[in-house]
């Protein structure tokens, strides 16, 4: 991942008003907590309570394991709505009011937005770097910026393909190794009135993941601001590919993965697969009558270029700026995300995504799955996938707005537009969005 400083995030000349507009509420503060003296840990024997806001269900059951072992540092988990469903606004409001929790669940792609409003503690000031080797390198890079660490990786979504072997076998097909082979299989399946997959035109996240796999780097930080390049050959290759797939009716755009219509098609044998993140396993297991009818394969690759896999989703345990106990919050976050007992509890009680720990995926994920045809798919597919991801991808400020812009462009596909045009349009609109918020940005020259 390309390193970026907060100065680069802010760019030259970004004022307080622009920071406030970015957050969508009153700015939490113009002075970074990271420019202030390090906060001393609690005194020996002093009892403190840390609060953690997250949208993970039953997180208190995990915290209680810690609490039993650390009587002087108790953790209280508070459920909040998902980030874009109100959770982030709640965090911004609390920060602006001078309060908020010690820890909060923040998606990796949202870290730069919180950095812009001075909302996060630089955990390197409290010893985070010494824990780096405990985590997957790619995920650690996603929270690391020059001179700082702004969140502890909590979960992620390495990608693979969930598929129904019996449907592949109707045309003598096997899991495609490349996207070109995927297109050939999709064409054969259409002859059986089966779609290989659906392509969501209302959600740009999967397209972003495919472009990342192809080697795209949409935004990178420079010394004088941000550099954008969404019309690079990697991205356009992916856009052209799916334009053609949609035009040739190889995929359906009439529903999105894991929607009611998707479940109905999958259960009826009208949809053969979904290329998705590891956390998709729990969702696929909700397909009626699906037990023993599904397996998992590596996602197709873009041939001789790009990477073996990609990632979709991922969140962190971040320490918010108003925490009075950042060192203790860091220690809990590292324990929660790397301790074997904690990881097993997160899987059991919270349905957490892929573990970021370098040495442990969770006991439950080492076992064969009856639903997935007795396959030990986590170790066979997703462990290798974590080592085959694009390490140079960088998230940027206003990521969610950027995704909304791209999704709006994709919807025009239904009325004759193209994904290629949507990407080019989105690039121009994102440049304007950056400038509107006082951020310096320029188009990379060919």
Ordered list of secondary-structure elements with their pairings:
Blueprint: H1 6-10, H2 16-23, E1 48-54, H3 59-69, E2 73-79, H4 87-96, E3 103-107, H5 111-116, H6 137-143, E4 144-145, E5 148-149, E6 152-163, H7 165-169, H8 179-190, E7 197-198, H9 205-214, E8 219-222, E9 225-228, H10 233-247, E10 251-252, H11 260-267, E11 273-277, H12 280-284, E12 295-298, E13 311-319, H13 326-338, H14 340-350, H15 377-386, H16 399-411, H17 419-436, E14 441-443
Parallel strand pairs: 1-2, 1-3, 7-10, 9-14
Antiparallel strand pairs: 3-13, 4-5, 6-11, 6-12, 6-13, 8-9
CATH architecture name of the largest domain: 3-Layer(aba) Sandwich
In terms of DSSP E residues, the strand content is 15-25%
Major sheet summary line: 7 strands, mixed
Helix content: 25-40%
Protein name: Carbohydrate ABC transporter substrate-binding protein (CUT1 family)
InterPro entries: Bact_solute-bd_prot1, SBP, TAT_signal
Keywords: Cell membrane, Lipoprotein, Membrane, Palmitate, Signal
Organism: Paramicrobacterium agarici
């Amino acid at each position: 991942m390309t390193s970026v400083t907060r100065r680069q995030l802010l760019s030259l000349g970004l004022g307080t008003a622009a920071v406030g507009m970015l957050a969508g509420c009153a700015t939490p503060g113009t002075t970074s907590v990271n420019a202030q003296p390090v906060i001393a840990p609690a005194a020996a024997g002093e009892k403190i309570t840390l609060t953690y806001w997250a949208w993970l269900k039953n997180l208190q059951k995990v915290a209680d394991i810690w609490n039993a072992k650390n009587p002087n540092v108790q953790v209280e988990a508070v459920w909040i709505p998902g980030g874009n469903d109100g959770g982030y606004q709640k965090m911004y409001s609390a920060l602006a009011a001078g309060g908020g929790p010690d820890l909060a669940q923040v998606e990796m792609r949202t870290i730069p937005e919180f950095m812009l409003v001075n909302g996060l503690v630089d955990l390197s000031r409290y010893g985070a770097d010494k824990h780096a080797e405990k985590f997957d390198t790619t995920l650690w890079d996603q929270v690391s910026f020059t001179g700082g660490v702004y969140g502890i990786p909590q979960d992620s979504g390495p990608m693979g393909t969930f598929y129904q072997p019996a449907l592949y076998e109707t045309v003598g097909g096997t899991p495609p190794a490349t996207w070109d082979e995927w297109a050939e299989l999709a064409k054969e399946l259409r002859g059986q009135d089966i779609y290989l997959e659906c392509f969501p035109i209302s959600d740009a996240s999967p397209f972003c993941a495919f472009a990342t796999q192809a080697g795209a780097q949409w935004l990178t930080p420079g010394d004088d601001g941000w550099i954008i390049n969404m019309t690079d050959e990697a991205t356009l290759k992916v856009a052209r590919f799916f334009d053609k797939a949609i035009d040739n009716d190889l995929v359906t755009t009439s529903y999105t993965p894991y929607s009611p219509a998707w479940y109905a098609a999958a259960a009826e044998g009208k949809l053969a697969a979904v290329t998705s993140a590891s956390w998709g396993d729990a969702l696929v297991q909700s397909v009626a009558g699906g037990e023993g009818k599904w397996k998992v394969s590596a996602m197709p690759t873009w041939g001789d270029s790009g990477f073996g896999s990609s990632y979709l989703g991922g969140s962190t345990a971040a320490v918010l700026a108003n925490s009075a106990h950042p060192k203790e919050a860091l220690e809990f976050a590292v324990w929660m995300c790397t301790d074997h007992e904690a990881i097993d509890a997160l899987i059991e009680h919270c349905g957490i995504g892929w573990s970021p720990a370098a040495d442990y995926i969770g006991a439950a994920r080492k076992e064969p799955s009856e639903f997935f045809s007795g396959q030990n798919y986590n170790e066979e597919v997703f462990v290798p996938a974590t080592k085959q991801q694009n390490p140079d991808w960088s998230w940027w400020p206003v990521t969610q707005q950027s995704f909304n812009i791209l999704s709006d462009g994709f919807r025009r596909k239904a009325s004759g537009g193209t994904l290629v045009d949507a990407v080019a349009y989105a690039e121009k609109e994102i440049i304007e969005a950056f400038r509107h918020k006082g951020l310096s940005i320029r188009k990379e020259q060919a």
